[in-house]
């Protein structure tokens, strides 16, 4: 292809993302686009094709971003090359959103015609506006009887401040408005303009590890071109490789001769060392390098930490390898080795939020066959000691002795809850119960309010979101950002099983709630730890002072007798069942402790209320 042809091709490229609040229909809309552009044959069409991980399909949420190349035959008779980059909508994953937006010139903004603009719609669209992307508004789900497209159109104008007079009225479900949206993408989103003759400059916006090909980089070429055999350099890690293959996802990988400025595709170069590739890094030519790397991504910092331990201690190295591979396409995941007296060798891992934590744990179990014990999540505390020194504590068991502490500071977030008028009461009640400090309340229109509170992050990460949803019949939406550390009157509570302290069960609570919580937790532990042939006392203590206790009674008769059955098949089955049941248990001293026990600290309010 000569330069003139390349220039012509570049004019026909459109790079865009779809941004929306969770469940407003991004994935369904992406599926319709794939159909309309004949990218996938009907036979291959599987609902929500872009959500490639099983986990995503099961949970119905988009987590990893995916880029596909599509060809659209527009009404003007020309064929356009679309690169569609999917983005997640959940509050935990906004870092992924900013990654995909950096590879685009435009964004399709999807708003549910019945729900209207929600907290995450705003957060995500502002990321796009900050990046100077052209916005194509789409009002989706107009097939719903409760749809109010005109109200929502006005909302987009008032709340986001963009022109929505041309907003596409669509139904991804029944396939309405899809062509109009594709036409608007062609006309409203600008073609990329990167210099085709300049030295190669490409942004790594995602990467995955493939056993055969090594690291597969997802790149947006900003300037120049790249082809098989080129020597490339990763600028931040300062390593060089020879390109083995370039191509696009269509959505299956499709080999190409080259990628040029404006293209979004993949690149492999037999990169075996995962540490070398960093999302946000710039790829350039080793022989003719560009002077300055692209601006990387905003770094994301984990907010929640938990311990990950293999149930089988021999699997420690497998767990490390699995974490390294996951980290490759999950820039926000952090981990470091940790030892626990109770659990042995494992890792302390940092996550963006609870969903992120769940997803990582599930991926470790499914994709890497790990059997894990995870400890209750904790935030990071800044502890000022009496000698003036500061210590950062992300593991409750490492909290220094109370006598050595001057002050404990915990992270606070500014939480914005968008809710219909009628539910303001329950929302405020919930925020107060979670130690929230009221900031302000803004009426958005006649029926909706933004309620703003400063709340300790530790209260948000547990069950706040579930509670918010259930107390507002699902109408509230939440967005939050970390603001600062503030002093709180916090104490560490230790749990003793059979009189010995189990470090992995320690937790931090506000002094006013400590006793109540301790009581709840010992009862929960009693319910989840199986009886053994001796009595097991469970105690909760602050320092040397016991603040709650209960006992797990011993077995009365030998239930193992039950498996002495004559039928060998049946016996094998029973033993097998027993083995499986045992899997997610860890022997702590003389007591077998199941996974549930380590999460007991998370279940809070139901038990309080029951009392
Ligand atoms: N009635 C109706 N339902 C729709 C429409 N589009 C999507 N849905 C439904 O809305 C739900 C959410 O759709 P998704 O496409 O999974 O939403 P999403 O925004 O991709 O969600 P995340 O990927 O989790 O952020 C699904 O049950 C869809 O079937 C539509 O036009 N009309």
Automatic annotation (TrEMBL):
Using the record's annotation, list all stretches that form the Tr-type G domain. Answer: 11-193
MF-aspect GO terms: GTP binding; GTPase activity; ribosome binding; translation elongation factor activity
Q: Does the keyword Hydrolase apply?
A: yes
* SUPFAM superfamilies (UniProt xref): EF-G C-terminal domain-like, P-loop containing nucleoside triphosphate hydrolases, Translation proteins
Q: Where does it live in the cell? A: Cell membrane
Reactions this protein catalyses: GTP + H2O = GDP + phosphate + H(+)
Q: What is its EC number?
A: 3.6.5.n1
Query: Which CDD domains does UniProt cross-reference here?
Result: EF4_II, EF4_III, LepA, lepA_C
SMART domains the record matches? EFG_C
Q: Any idea which positions bind GTP?
A: 23-28, 140-143
Provide the topology term for how it sits in the membrane. Answer: Peripheral membrane protein
Concerning Pfam families, the annotation shows:
EFG_C, GTP_EFTU, GTP_EFTU_D2, LepA_C
Tree of life domain? Bacteria
Please give the InterPro entries that the UniProt record associates with this protein: EF-4, EFG_III/V, EFG_V-like, EFTu-like_2, G_TR_CS, LepA_C_sf, LepA_CTD, LepA_IV
Using the UniProt record, give the first listed, main subcellular location.
membrane
Key word Transit peptide present: no
Single GO cellular component term = plasma membrane
Q: Per the UniProt entry, what is one GO biological process?
A: positive regulation of translation
Q: Which UniProt keywords apply?
A: Cell membrane, Elongation factor, GTP-binding, Hydrolase, Membrane, Nucleotide-binding, Protein biosynthesis
- Please give the family membership noted in the entry: Belongs to the GTP-binding elongation factor family. LepA subfamily.
Q: What does this protein do?
A: Required for accurate and efficient protein synthesis under certain stress conditions. May act as a fidelity factor of the translation reaction, by catalyzing a one-codon backward translocation of tRNAs on improperly translocated ribosomes. Back-translocation proceeds from a post-translocation (POST) complex to a pre-translocation (PRE) complex, thus giving elongation factor G a second chance to translocate the tRNAs correctly. Binds to ribosomes in a GTP-dependent manner.
Recorded hits in PANTHER family, A to Z, give: TRANSLATION FACTOR GUF1 HOMOLOG, CHLOROPLASTIC, TRANSLATION FACTOR GUF1-RELATED
Protein name (record):
Elongation factor 4
What gene codes for this chain? lepA
